[in-house]
Amino acid sequence: MSFLRIENASKAYTSGGQRTEVLDNIQLDIAEGEFVAIVGFSGAGKSTLINFFSGLVSPDSGSVTLEGKPIEGPGPDRGLIFQNYSLLPWLTVYENIALAVDHLFPDWPATKRREHIERHIAMVKLTRARDKKPHELSGGMRQRVSIARTLATSPRILLMDEPFGALDALTRGELQQETLQIWEQDKRTVVLITNDPDEAILMADRVIPLTPGPRATLGPAIPITLPRPRIRAELSTNPEFKRLRAQVIDYLLEAAGSQKTTITRSLVLPDIEPEDLTRKSIFIGRRRPVRRSEIKTETVET
Amino acid sequence: MKSFRFDWLVLPLIGLLIVLAGWQMIAGKKIVSTDEEGNIISEERVGLVPALPDIRDTWEASRPYIVEPMAKRGELDQGMLRFTFMSLGLVAVGYAIALAIGVPIGFFLGLSPVFTKMFDPIIQVLRPVSPLAWLPLGYIIFMEAGRDTGTLAALFTIAVCSMWPTVLNTAVGVRAVPQDYLNVGRVLKLSRTKMLFKILIPATLPYMFTGFRLSLGIAWLVIVAAEMLTGRPGVGGFLWQEYNSLIYEHIILSIITIGLVGFILDRLMSVVEKRFKTA
């Protein structure tokens, strides 16, 4: 029996009377302790997909199960690391983590809770920023807090929704490496959503491409057999890494290419000959252009 | 540093001088004609607005009220600071009532679209009603209270009029709480009360304090009207009494006092408000 499973799930959003089918026919099986990365274009519905697991979004059809039991609503057993960190700005680093820990482990003695929080702050190397508010921290540090907060709740599954997407390249690499190191210690189940094939291959056991939307669906899984621990700097010259990278990118680009659609839109062309400034206007008002704008329609292939 | 002084000290002083000069120009001056023995034959006031006292007369008449700010010579003849404290006391109670009622209403409006659809139209209609219109209603409601009727009616008017900015800002603040903060609570499975006290209220506080500041400004506006109509001792009551006693200098003294107190209250609240601004 698989650990985490999505079966035949689909999701559509309706806004302004227009229905957009975001995800279609999603099949996914994740084993316990597996690190799975889902790679796709921006706007393909990746966040919707991971929120099937977190329980913040439920599919229109199909099922999402954890150990055979359907997932209904969010819960702390599935720790979610948000794309935009989602720290509470009026709390310090310590208090942000304490909010989660105090709520989830009310039976622990206060000293044990405090020690637990301090340990997780140290794990992401933020001991010195312990009493700072989020607005005093850099983006990378904020995401560290978010990671520490989620890990401190001891979730069975770690859900990461483009966790490093908003960071600069150097910080991103650093955090990827550190996250991997932390993961190596207990090898929890992780689902990582990303738009960066390199990140997916560096971190995951299995990379699954998500075709571009609308009606996005998962492509064939690509197993990553690169030995662990993986070091980012060494991988860039590794021929196997290069091959995998090409495979992921080729698949995604090909999927994007086969999704050609045409859009017909009407557009207003600008005034072709501008107004005649030498002619005096008799009445107050603007001089008419010699040739007015015209409305045309055009068909574009995307 | 020099330009700082110029901007914050010299320019406001120049502005003040211009206004004072304008006042002095239109104010009426007393012309006293006497005969050879120094007896007053006639006394008349001349000027663009003859009845308006000029700066010197105003200062002369106001001096006892400023120099002895806590003096009490009679029910409606007390030092300005003493009057101010009386007015502030009443405002404090009415304002507290306004916040105690306004914040929960704001939360209901922000949280429940049904509640908003039910009550928003009524709020929008009641909001622009003048304090002068609420006061008589207050008298009717608290008619049975005997000697306290005036006080209760004034409190009622202050509370009803100053409540709206708090109600509306709280509602806007609750609606503006980012979904991400709520998701943090949902993932942790916080209970409804914990969600309210740990996430919703702290996230709304900056908006609430903007509402509190605007409400305090209105409460101070209303107190003057309420005191004028109820005849309670206080800055507004004093103003109205001195108008009836034809001591026009004291009207100007009262106006300046009301303005300064309102300004100080607003400054104090904006300091508090800034403390709660979370980046």
Give a nutshell description of this structure.
With 302 residues, chain A is α/β, with parallel strands linked by helices.
**Percentage of β-strand residues of chain B:** 5-15%
Q: Please give the alpha-carbon distance between the first and last residues of chain B.
A: 29 Å
Q: Give the number of domains of chain B.
A: 2
CATH classification, class level of the largest domain in chain B: Mainly Alpha
| Strand order of the biggest β-sheet of chain B | 1-2
The structural class of chain A is alpha/beta
Largest sheet of chain B: 2 strands, antiparallel
What's the SSE blueprint?
The complex is a heterodimer of chains A (302) and B (279).
Chain A: E1 4-15, E2 18-30, E3 35-40, H1 46-54, E4 61-66, E5 69-70, E6 78-81, H2 93-104, H3 110-123, H4 139-152, E7 157-161, H5 169-186, E8 189-194, H6 197-203, E9 206-210, E10 222-223, H7 232-235, H8 239-257, E11 262-268, E12 273-275, E13 289-291, E14 295-301
Parallel strand pairs in A: 3-8, 3-9, 6-7, 7-8
Antiparallel strand pairs in A: 1-2, 1-4, 4-5, 9-10, 11-14, 12-13
Helix pairs in contact in A: 2-3, 2-4, 3-4, 6-8
Chain B: H1 2-26, E1 29-34, E2 40-46, H2 55-67, E3 72-74, E4 77-78, H3 80-111, H4 113-126, H5 131-141, H6 149-175, H7 179-188, H8 192-230, H9 235-244, H10 248-276
Antiparallel strand pairs in B: 1-2, 3-4
Task: Please name the defining characteristics of this protein.
heterodimer; A: alpha/beta; Rossmann fold; 6-stranded mixed beta sheet; 4-stranded antiparallel beta sheet; 8 helices; B: 279 residues; mainly alpha; MetI-like fold; 2 domains; two-stranded antiparallel ribbon; two-stranded antiparallel sheet; 4 strands; 75% helix
